[in-house]
Queue: 2 jobs
Job 1
Amino acid sequence: MQQKIIILDFGSQTTQLIARRVRELNTFCEILPYNKFPVGDDSVIGVILSGSPFSVHDPQAFKPDLAPLLGKLPVLGICYGAQLIAHTLGGSVEKADTREYGRAHLTQVLTDDPLLHGIDDGSQVWMSHGDTITSIPNGCHAIASTAQVRYAAYRCDKQPVWAVQFHPEVYHTAQGKQLLANFVVDICGSKQQWSPAAWVSTTVEELKQQLGDDRVILGLSGGVDSSVCAVLLHRAIGDRLTCIFVDHGMLRKNEFNNVLNDYRGMGLNVRGIDASKKFFDDLAGVTDPEQKRKIIGRDFVEVFNAEAEKITDARWLAQGTIYPDRIESLNITGKVIKSHHNVGGLPEKMHLKLCEPLKWLFKDEVRRVGRELGMPDKLIMRHPFPGPGLAVRILGDITPERVRILQDADDIYISAMQRYVCDDGETLYNKVWQAGAILLSTVRSVGVMGDERTYEHPVALRAVTSTDAMTADWAHLPYDFMAQVSSEIINRVRGVNRVCYDISSKPPATIEWE
Ligand code: XMP
């Protein structure tokens, strides 16, 4: 049986990060809503309570009765989780005089405690809370402090319950990984058997069982997730997987043919459909971004359905949904963070069963699985690309000519990024999360070329660093690189006479312009 750690989510922004850290310890874990205790599931070896945007004194705070949990399985409370345990067991939590935020250093570390083996006195930790524990419950004792916080970490004497008011999952907690390893491996007893290789072999077996002799359809986009999903399924059921790759006309330059060839080279059974005319016709004159997305989504479903209907004996629709896609839609604070879907509405209309083999994986794990499956790096390391493609990178209405201009500018930018090798030997392309060019076709400016006055459009370049696209920083690209790309675009792409660089982070901006 696969062992797992459960992370109960009280709404903290770092809940996903806890999960990633646990997975890095080769241990499977799942994030569940704060009140879904994993009682009676023998595969669960421990539980982590996350932080929260709330104080335990807020009326809207999530305060489940922890009694059914404490004492049954090893529990680690983090930040709010630590305060909730203290509050529940009769300790006190009060508003801190000043909000405890940022770096602090541990003192009085009891390294005899299994949670703190190998953690040094003076080790840096990251605090982020408005409340603080002023007394811990009877039967508990402090195992580490900081200059400001007496109970930086404590544990219960008679129950396997530990609590830390700092965040071991964030990078700024220098020995956070060690602390989490102490909990997951030493305290909970993880055998650390979760790895991409192990995952591939069990998942392929499960897919064989689940799908039997059934036929499966999958929509390929050229992106990492759907490509890895296809190769995985192909390994399980071979040619009973049919992939459909729709060209809506707004892919990157030469993308459709290049990717189609790559897919075929990997042995996939792919039908490539050039539907660009339909999309261009339906988008003619449309300038509103949401309207564009709706039309593209609707047309995509139509084209995909028409092709899928030809595969009359298909029973399943496979999708490359990954874990963050689902966590976002399950977010317990109820805020919708992202509402874009590539193939929304397909399963309901098609009466097919849904197969989502990547649904437990994070993006970096999908890439590791892809490597494990022998996929080429150029497919695995691709930047994310939006479903509606360049349509959301052309301001105003979309014409084939504008798409051509943007494809040319984007191709110069991205190819240069792939060629540029940084000091550490990595290409600039691999160092950024995502990059692309945006055509500001609603703006014109004056320029001069030779003796001629020009009055043309600017192109904006965007490059961001990120781990999951939920937040992103603009990438600090080298000036020599930007200078070279700018002059190459202006000299070679007719219709563009100015290049700008977008220096907005997300939030408050988003990655895409529309
Ligand atoms: P934003 O612009 O919301 O984008 O910061 C976050 C990430 O999602 C991608 N994106 C999309 N992906 N269909 C997709 O499959 C879409 O409609 C869509 N819109 C944005 C975007 O490229 C970035 O990686």
Job 2
Amino acid sequence: MTIPLVGTGVAVPVGFAEEVAACTACALHATRTTPVVGAGTGTAKVLILGEAPGADEDRTGLPFVGRSGRLLRQLMLDELGLEGNALTISNLVRCRPPGNATPTTQQRRACWPFMAEQIAYLQPAVIITVGNTATQQILATTAGITTLRGVTYEAHGAVVIPTYHPAAALRGGAVVLEALRSDLRLARPYLGGVAA
Ligand code: URA
């Protein structure tokens, strides 16, 4: 099966990408190659939120284009019928942490205004947070993803659906993968007829 390409349009206000590129609010700007603003023009009002760009994203400037990203986008297509530009994909932190380290609290705080601006602009009906970092920031909690996943929340004017990071499904096998699929299906009632 062909895995669809990530959308290359992006739903952000005018000047947003330039602001991200010029940001020096944390040390990550000094080591990254390309800031990753996000992707997708947002017609489906579903925002997928990851942690931070990895090596492939840093090289291309697009979110979730590496192995775990391809899995995530295939699952979004399988479970919700969403692909390409319909889906908005972004990361809590826009610049790659060296060695794919988990972004520090200071780095997450420094980057948060961009996320807040993107959410206010897109007004997503559903935010799907993948992994601990994005989930904990969006739900303002320190609880872990295994505890939080499997149900929906409300925050930032959206239904929030926390689930495992696709990298965990690549490592964790069938059980994690099935949990991820079933979490994504929780979004179906909120898609407003856009898909699935
Ligand atoms: N992991 C993430 O959290 N985001 C990406 O864009 C790629 C991998």
